[in-house]
Amino acid sequence: MLPKIGQMLYIQPHADASDGAQTGMLRSRVTDADDRYLYVDIPMDEQTRKLHRTQPGDELKLTYFTAEGVKHQFSAHVHSIRRDSSSQLVIPKPEPDDITREQRRSFLRVEAQLEIAIRLGEKLRFTALTDDVGGGGVSFRCDRKWPITPNMKANCWLLLTYKSGAVSHAQFEAEIVRIVPVEPHHHLIMMRFKDIQDTDQQKIIRYCFEKQLERRKD
Q1: Residues with Cβ within 8 Å of residue 155, at least 6 apart in sequence
Q2: CATH topology of domain 8-102
Q3: Which of 13, 128, 166, 218 qualifies as a FRET site for 210, CA 20 to 30 Å off?
Q4: How far apart are the first and last CA of the chain?
Q5: Domain 109-217 in this protein, CATH class
Q6: For the whole prediction, is pTM greater than 0.90?
Q7: How far is CA 32 from CA 36, 61, 93, 97, 109, in A?
């Protein structure tokens, strides 16, 4: 499956031996497509928050995730730069056999302590810290006093802080799937997304992918 228009891309350029510069994860988005090419925004370096200088002929590794949580990757070169109302990279569409697929039982999950606000029903609201997050759901720890039961629906707001210092929020409705007592007086609550906008889900996937890349560098 090729990336769709509007799909977020995570890009790793081949190392530039000419200056030895360290490049962080690059992020872009598919803006257009035709029979032969994908057109993507000039990628931004997540570490410096600057647009990455990309030239025709540069080799790139591109990663994207489907709505079902399947990771796809392919390598391509920059064919040219399209200069329209905004500049875009022109990338040849890969052949189906050139796309690798990493089927997971669920989305990539990473351990993370992020602030999450939870609303149960109309009146009960509280904040907690996540235990892990992923593109398919999150888990968090909270005091056992809260009346939480399996299959309950919760409206949530998750605060995401990226390596660059940028801050974003993701909003979603989730279903409680499991409750595990943890000492001394807390529960570990595991939730899966029931209703989440694609843009909010992509924010969470971006966070997880960034954390995964950080671990590989350690």
Answers
A1: 118, 119, 171, 172, 173
A2: Pnp Oxidase; Chain A (2.30.110)
A3: 128
A4: 32
A5: mainly beta
A6: no
A7: 11, 19, 12, 22, 30
